[in-house]
Specification:
Elements: E1 2-7, E2 10-15, H1 25-39, E3 45-50, E4 54-56, H2 61-66, H3 70-87, E5 93-97, E6 100-102, H4 104-110, E7 114-118, E8 124-125, H5 128-131, H6 137-147, H7 151-155, E9 170-172, H8 177-191, H9 194-232, H10 235-241
Parallel strand pairs: 2-3, 3-5, 4-6, 5-7, 6-8, 7-9
Antiparallel strand pairs: 1-2
Helix pairs in contact: 1-3, 3-4, 3-6, 4-6, 6-9
Length: about 240
């Protein structure tokens, strides 16, 4: 479900899990394990991308609906661990968004230091509120940290790469996406001493982690409760049955 290769001293992490790289427990645990190992490994930098034509379509809602009630209780902490594993990797992490990055997929991209997306490759946005579920605290803080505003969070809109409202830093031709992402990661690793880069990331992210430490515990139970409610009242099932435009 994760393909790990190397290019010029950069670890290329490719999500390869089903047709749309939907985030389920297994993939989330694999992301956490992979990035934890890479943080302490020899790779100078990391590129995160997806297999096929989709970066990630977000949480696998079918698993939420069809699974037992305690699946939600396992899923939400797994989301937090995976997002934070990407976010706190002390090396340059570049997202090569090769297609749609929706909801949790967009959060994964936001957890990276620099985000490239293929022109015409899809849409990106956090649609959680339109689905009817609240953000896990870590996901909300990561998106807030990346975007610096609330507009895209509260609207639930998705955007083309060229008008991404801060989700994407650089738009590149599809056939140049991975090479450009690797080159960007190499440049960051070459031009900035590794210990300086790591410390600066810690400094930049300190307010985010402070907010999570203070506010996370106060919201986690309420977030889980609403995920259970949307599962049980048919809201999530209705979302899956809506015609795709």
């Amino acid at each position: 479900m994760i393909e790990l290769t190397e290019a010029g001293g950069v670890a290329v992490v490719r999500l390869a899990h089903g047709k749309v790289n939907a985030l389920d427990l297994e993939l989330l645990d694999a992301i956490t394990e992979t990035f934890t190992e890479l943080d302490g490994g020899d790779a100078r930098a990391v590129v995160l991308t997806g297999a096929g034509g989709v970066f990630s379509a977000g949480v696998d809602l079918r698993r939420v609906i069809d699974g037992p009630p305690d699946y939600v209780d396992a899923l939400l902490p797994a989301l937090t661990r995976a997002f934070q594993a990407v976010l706190t990797t002390g090396k340059p992490v570049v997202a090569a968004v090769n297609g749609h990055a929706i909801a949790g997929g967009a959060v994964l991209a936001c957890a990276c230091d620099h985000r490239l997306m293929a022109a015409g490759g899809g849409r990106i946005g956090v649609t959680e509120l339109l689905v009817g579920v609240p953000f896990p605290p870590a996901a909300l803080e990561i998106v807030r940290h990346a975007l610096g505003s609330h507009d895209a969070i509260l609207s639930g809109d998705t955007f083309e790469p060229e008008h991404s409202h801060g989700f994407i830093d650089t738009v590149v031709p599809p056939d140049a996406l991975l090479d450009t992402a690797v080159a960007t990661a190499v440049r960051l690793a070459r031009e900035i001493p590794a210990d300086t880069f790591r410390l600066t990331k810690e400094q930049l992210q300190a307010p985010l982690h402070d907010r999570l430490a203070r506010l996370g515990p106060a919201f986690e139970a309420r977030v889980a409760s609403l995920w259970h409610r949307r599962r049980d009242d048919g809201t999530l099932a209705a979302q899956l049955s809506r015609p795709k435009s």
